[in-house]
């Protein structure tokens, strides 16, 4: 296996958290992964991006110019990074914040996901990142949703474990959305 | 089996240093290396060591000199502008033959520059960043695992030669997370007791002096020649590099640290396209692997050097193999200037076919 994904949004959307989680889940499954974050000096509102490279062999470059997949959570990220997605690749687009009629790229697969609305429906706007991550692993199968759950449990301090069910629900909702979208 | 951890390069270098017996840390926060003092401030007290956030970089390097003079394993860390401030103290450490670890998680400059990854401190690191014509040992890890391993190696080399050691990485290697398999530190057999260390025990004994001031006729010349004799021994005994697919390579790519990682993927892609390309990655930047460059270009191979700066290590490559065709491709460091494997592959193709 050899996969890479680029994630981008604004600070506060939880991009770095899900990037970290995906890489850690990959390690838990016995493969190699690198998680390379890049973010602005702002605590919230600045650009937040990360690149995750996953492989069953050693990871070469943690930096990727043309990623196989991109998770784009806000309009600025769409503007800057959509064109970089490798031909034949996959883009997961947060349609709650981004308008795209599909005419810009016909050489990639894309999935529009109303992540903000879905997060609110589950009960917390901060679940956007988990919904998107659930959809991505359903599409790519790079790790199982169960591994993500296990990784989340280990990453999260015990005092926050009461939030686990809600996060699990968000991961499942994202995965289910992806299944439905490509089934039809 | 030891559990594989998932940590940042900055945390790994701190973990390796503590495992190697470092019990004194002196530093001052600066992005992108603040994870190092953060980790050590949390873990050092559990080991009975001392963590001090000094009032400045200048103070912290001089605290390091003092701890080192007492024979302890000690370290500091900073990033480029902070390392510039420390240069006076590093020169004094070099002159006083005080071992110790200095970690530079390089950011872009000059001046305050930016917080993004950079390799523009190469000259400062390997040519003696302070005054007086000295060298320090410079190690360039390219992974989180190597950050851990080389913290140990840096202390060993530094103690063996009584020469300060620097780990030169950048925001990519420092802030990236990867799997890390920790292991126990084993001290090399040849490390001698530090009988020069200033450990006052209240008993009468031979006076010990650690100093860099030599005023007597011929004293300083002899001292400098002694330092340079050690550098010459290191050049023979301590050079380390990694070779990837060099055996039949017609084009030898070279890069260190973060750009070496990017180059590894570019070399693999080039091989997949049928190009006979290899990678020679210097691990010790001082001592520089001159002989390796000679060996791997002896049949007329060309060299292509990648750096995240406007061309620094390439000068050492050219000095190592003056008759070889050595080309350079680099990006000036700053936000958005990190090169990609695809970009390096284009360069490889151009130079391979030329």
Descriptive account of the structure:
The complex is a heterodimer of chains A (184) and B (354). Chain A has a single domain (2-183), classed as Pyruvate-ferredoxin Oxidoreductase, domain 3. Helix content of chain A is 40%, strand content 22%. Chain A contains six helices and six strands, in the order βαβββαββαααα. The two termini of chain A are 27 Å apart. With 354 residues, chain B is of the alpha/beta class. Chain B is globular, with a radius of gyration of 20 Å. The longest helix of chain B is centred in the middle third of the chain and has 19 residues, at 219-237. Chain B has twelve helices and 14 strands. Chain B folds into two domains: 5-180, Rossmann fold, CATH 3.40.50; 241-353, Rossmann fold (3-Layer(aba) Sandwich), CATH 3.40.50. In chain B, 40% of the residues lie in helices and 18% in strands. β2 (32-39) of chain A pairs antiparallel with β8 (177-180) of chain B.
Number of strands of chain A: 6
Oligomer: heterodimer
Give the overall form of chain B. globular
What fraction, in percent, of the residue positions of chain B are helical? 25-40%
Biggest interface pair, counts:
A-B, 20 and 25 residues
Low-pLDDT windows of residues of chain B: none
**Helicity level of chain A:** 25-40%
Rg value of chain B: 20 Å
> For this structure, what is the CATH class of the largest domain in chain B?
Alpha Beta
Tally of helical runs of chain A:
6
The CATH topology of chain A turns out to be Pyruvate-ferredoxin Oxidoreductase, domain 3
Total number of domains of chain A:
1
The succession of helices and strands of chain B, N to C, reads EHEHEHEHEHEHEHEHEEHEEHEHEH
CATH overall fold name of the largest domain in chain B: Rossmann fold
From the N-terminal CA to the C-terminal CA of chain A, the straight-line distance is 27 Å
Give the CATH class of chain A: Alpha Beta
Structural class by sheet pairing and helices of chain B? alpha/beta
């Amino acid at each position: 296996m050899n996969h890479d994904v680029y994630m981008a949004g604004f600070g506060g959307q939880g991009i770095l958290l899900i990037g970290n989680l995906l890489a850690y889940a990959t390690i838990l499954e016995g493969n190699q992964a690198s998680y390379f974050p890049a973010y602005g000096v702002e605590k919230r509102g600045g650009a937040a991006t990360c690149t995750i490279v996953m492989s069953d062999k050693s990871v070469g470059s943690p930096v990727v110019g043309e990623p196989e997949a991109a998770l784009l959570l806000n309009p600025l990220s769409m503007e800057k990074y959509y064109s970089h997605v490798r031909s034949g690749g996959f883009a997961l687009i947060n349609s709650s914040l981004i308008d795209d009629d599909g005419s810009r790229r016909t050489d990639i697969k894309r999935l529009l996901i109303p992540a903000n609305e879905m997060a609110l429906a589950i009960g917390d706007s901060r679940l956007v990142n988990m919904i998107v991550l659930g959809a991505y692993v359903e599409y790519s199968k790079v790790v199982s949703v169960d591994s993500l759950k296990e990784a989340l449990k280990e990453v999260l301090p015990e005092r926050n474990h009461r939030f686990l069910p809600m996060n699990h629900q968000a991961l499942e909702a994202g995965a289910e959305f992806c299944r439905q979208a490509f089934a039809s | 089996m030891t559990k594989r951890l998932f940590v940042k390069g900055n945390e790994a270098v701190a973990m390796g240093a503590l495992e190697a017996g470092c019990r004194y840390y002196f530093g001052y926060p600066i992005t992108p290396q603040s994870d190092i003092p953060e980790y050590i401030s949390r873990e050092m007290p559990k080991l009975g060591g001392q963590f001090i956030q000094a009032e400045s970089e200048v103070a912290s390097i001089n605290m390091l000199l003092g701890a080192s003079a007492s024979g302890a394993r000690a370290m500091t860390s900073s990033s480029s502008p902070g390392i510039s401030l420390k240069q006076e103290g590093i020169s004094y450490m070099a002159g006083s033959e005080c071992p110790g670890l200095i970690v530079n998680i390089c950011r872009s400059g000059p001046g305050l520059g930016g917080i993004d990854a950079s390799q523009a401190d190469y000259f400062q690191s390997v040519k003696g960043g302070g005054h007086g014509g000295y060298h320090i040992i410079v190690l360039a890890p390219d992974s989180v695992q190597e950050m851990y391993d080389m913290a140990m190696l840096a202390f060993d080399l530094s103690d063996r030669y009584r020469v300060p050691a620097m780990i030169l990485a950048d925001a990519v290697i420092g802030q990236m997370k990867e799997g890390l398999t920790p292991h126990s530190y084993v001290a090399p057999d040849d490390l001698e007791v530090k009988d020069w260390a200033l450990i006052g025990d209240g008993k009468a004994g031979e006076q010990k002096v650690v100093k860099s001031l030599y005023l007597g006729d011929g004293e300083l010349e002899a001292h400098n020649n002694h330092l340079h004799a050690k550098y010459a021994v290191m050049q023979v005994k301590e050079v380390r590099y990694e070779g990837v697919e060099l055996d039949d390579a017609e084009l030898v790519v070279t890069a260190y640290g973060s750009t070496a990682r990017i180059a590894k993927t570019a070399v693999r892609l080039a091989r997949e396209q049928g190009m006979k390309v290899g990678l020679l990655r210097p691990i010790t930047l001082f001592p520089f692997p001159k002989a390796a460059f000679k060996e791997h270009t002896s049949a007329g191979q060309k060299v292509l050097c990648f750096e995240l700066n406007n061309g620094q290590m390439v000068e050492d490559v050219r000095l190592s193999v003056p008759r070889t065709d050595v080309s350079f491709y680099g990006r000036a460091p700053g936000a958005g200037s990190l090169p990609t494997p695809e970009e390096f592959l284009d360069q490889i193709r151009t130079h391979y076919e030329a």
